[in-house]
Amino acid sequence: MGQSLSRNNILEQLRIKRNKRFRLASIVTVLIIFTLLIPVLQYSLNIYIPYNKTALRVEDSVFTREDVVDFVRFNQRLSEEQGVQFNPGSSLFESLQLIAENEIAYFSAAQYGLTVEQWEIDEAFFIKLGIYDDIDLSLGEDKRAFQEQKIQFLNEVQLDDETYQDIVRKGIFREKLRRELSREIPLIQPHAEVYKILVSDAQPTMLSDIERRIKTGEDLEEIISRFSEDPEVQKNKGSLGWIPVGIYPTLDNILFVQDENGKRNLNLRELSEPYINQESDLLEFYIISDLTEARELSDEHMEQLSNDALRQFLSNKSSVVNIEYGLDNDTFNWINSRVQIASILPSSTISEDDMDGVDSILNQ
User: Which of 340, 307, 311, 308 lies closest to 97 in space, CA to CA?
Assistant: First the structure.
């Protein structure tokens, strides 16, 4: 009986020793795993999670903080390569809006049958760098030089080729959409030849004198040179040139609108009601010197109307497309700190106005 009990004690002691070794091994294993996990956790907390936090969603397309950093760095470096200072504040939230608009343009490409070829991406990149005139991509030597310069550029801004291609491609889709919309703008349109007088005090006697001189047929440029307080009056004589509808939207009503009887809101060689110039606080008066129902748009006006058409198209689409901004002050500051790393010019600081811009997006 005693011998049997002694054997049980021995077995129990062996079991206890095994358990102690097992617990010790378990503790050591846990410590090793925990030690190995620390860098992983640090990476997740400091890099992976912050970089992959959603900054923008356009329908099913999700753009992370990292995507925004890539986009801003790319455009930042392109600007700075040409000596243009990059504003880290306004450019950040404007970039978010631009990313969203480019995505809408990309979605709309099929509607207009728009496509983008590889050579267009390469060409657009060199045009942005301002050196395309010196390169012929059809030549092997120039193509190799292009590839080397592109690789160097992407390494400097820490972008991979796929990201670069996507950014440039969608920018091209935006420009192609703008051109397509411009086709809908009539090349021949009504125009008004317009002059402007700026005065600080619209005294009745002075206005009566101006109106009398206009009605008697005195040269408009001489009248304006005599009375206008516009600093540029000696340079432009108050002339705004031939203006079509849409160039000065606030003036369209007086320049082009007629009632059911054909009566115009502002007749030829007649002084308009005063408008307040928001920049100088001067009063503006307008005079139509001539009208035509058919005049070809200037290149400058076609460009402006095309930009307005694209802006209106994107605004209309934005009202029906699901767009969500994941931008807050923390994200704003986080992105800005990463963007500054790629800057080659002295860094700027974020102003209170820049932060107000963030809030304006969040409140949309």
Answer: 311
Is the CATH code 1.10.4030 the one for domain 54-183+305-362?
yes
The span from the CA of 44 to the CA of 50, in Å, is 8
Q: Are 284 and 274 in contact (CB under 8 A)?
A: yes
**Two domains, one topology: 54-183+305-362 and 192-294:** no
Q: Where are the domains of the chain?
A: 1-51, 54-183+305-362, 192-294
Q: pLDDT in tens for each of the 364 residues of the chain?
A: 444 456 666 656 666 666 666 676 667 666 666 566 555 445 444 444 556 688 888 988 899 888 888 888 888 888 777 666 666 556 677 888 899 999 999 999 989 999 999 989 988 888 877 665 566 666 677 778 778 888 888 888 888 999 999 999 999 999 999 999 999 999 999 999 999 999 988 889 999 999 999 999 999 999 999 999 888 888 889 999 999 999 999 999 999 988 877 788 899 999 999 998 888 888 999 999 999 999 999 999 999 999 999 999 999 998 888 888 877 777 777 777 777 655 555 554 444 455 455 455 444 4
> Options 3.40.630.30, 3.30.300.30, 3.20.20.210, 3.10.50.40; which CATH number does 192-294 get?
3.10.50.40
Q: What is the CA radius of gyration of the chain?
A: 33
Predicted structure pTM score? 0.75
- The helix or strand, by DSSP H or E, that contains position 57, with its residue range, turns out to be strand 54-58
